[in-house]
Structure formats: structure tokens, C-alpha cells
Specification:
With 263 residues, the protein is an alpha/beta fold. Helices cover 40% and strands 24% of the residues.
Length: 263
Amino acid sequence: MYDLKTYKNRHRQGEIHNYILHLGFVKIADIAEQFAISLATVRRDLDALERRALIERTWGGAKVRSPIRYLADFEKVALKQIKAKRAIAAKANEFVKDGMIIGLSGGTTCTEFARWLRGRSITVVTNAINVATELYNHSHTKVIVTGGHLNSYSYELVGDLVDETLAQYKLDISFLGVTGIEQEFGFSMRDSLEASIARAFLCASDKAIVIADHTKIGQKAMAEFAPFSEIEYLISDEAISPEQIAMLDKAGLKLSIAPGLQS
């Protein structure tokens, strides 16, 4: 028998699920305001979504349910500057157009960005198995994973096979996470293997965009992979300081600042 109330509840829950998918994390009060429903209704809807394994309940809200149960060390890093990373991911999504072939490296900011790409009509080439898993089973989104040896801490494939795979493709844009951004040293990674991979993405792409929160600016890691002149844009968060902005402007690097998300 057709049940209008059940239909309306399911429809609203679907809208709430999409809202959480876009923001990553949402407070109960914000859901109530967004959908003009009571706090009690929000809690019932979140309970229903959690029973269907679509979201995870948290203290005072809900977050995107990941298909991966991450290692504690990776999860700890992922939570640092989490609001900034989610804002950067949302901003980076604006640079992606349907039909594009994009490169996406590993790391926690790129992982947040991958969640924004679910269902987009694009092809994603990545060396990170967790990024691929975040995107799997989403219609319209094609995923290509490079070869290589697995770094179990970062979930990234590394080594010569990554370079060889990327050399076979022509990417419209690559989005790269980094460890350090310093005027004279350029963009850098924590080791030579990661730097080599970033360089391979850069060489395979029409243009490259670095996505990194403000804490990376002014830092210098062990292995440099590109000067500022080889990167199209840096996307960072709104906590970036006037001094950091001035340094980047003086160096001629284009900066796109991601506004904070309402969550």
C-alpha cells in the first residue's frame, strides 16, 4: 500500500544525506534550520540514515560515512585543519568540469576533495588506493589507479610504476597535496618518492593546482618537486595571513582562497 508519510520521510532523508555528503560534517541544529524541521525529527532521520549505513552519527551531528576504516595515524592527520580541508575541497570542485580527466594525488586534503567528486562525469587518475575507494561505485565517475608499491601509512602507491602509468595519460588538471610551500624552495614533499610522483602528475597535466591549508605555507619539506612558476593555482583556506598572501603575490603565484563552509 502506498504510504505518503513514508515517502515524504524517505525523500527528506535523501535530501539530508546529500547535504551531509556535500559538507562532510553537519550539526543537528544546522540540519533543523536548513530543512525547517524539529531537532527530534532530525535525530530520527539521522538514526534512519545510520541504520542504512549511509552516514555516521557523531556528538551533536553527523558525518560522511567512508567506505574505508582508516588507520588511526591517518585519521589523526586528517582531523587536523579539517574545516579548512573541507572548504578547500569544495573550492577545488569548482575548477572541475564534466568530461575532464583529472589527476589526484594522495593525502588527507586530496581525500576530502575526492568525496566532492563522487558521481561527477569525469575520469580520475590516482596513485592513492583510498582515493579510488572513496570514488568507487559512483555512477559516471571513472577511476584509474596507477601501479606501484603500497605505502600503508599514506595509502599511496609509489615507485617507478607510478611514473610509467602517468606517462601514458594526458590529464586536463592535476590536484596535488603537498607538505611544504616556501618561496625560494617552491613546493616540496616529505621524501623523494612523493616528490617524484608529484612531478609525474605535473608533467602529465595541462595544468596543476596545489590544494593545501595555510599551515603548509612558509614550510619547507625534504624534497622539492616544482617552483611556483609551474603551478597554475594554490587553493588555500581563509585563515591564510596577510603576510602569507603578500609572499605568494610577490612570488607571482595565483591564489584562490576557499571561504569557510557553513557547518
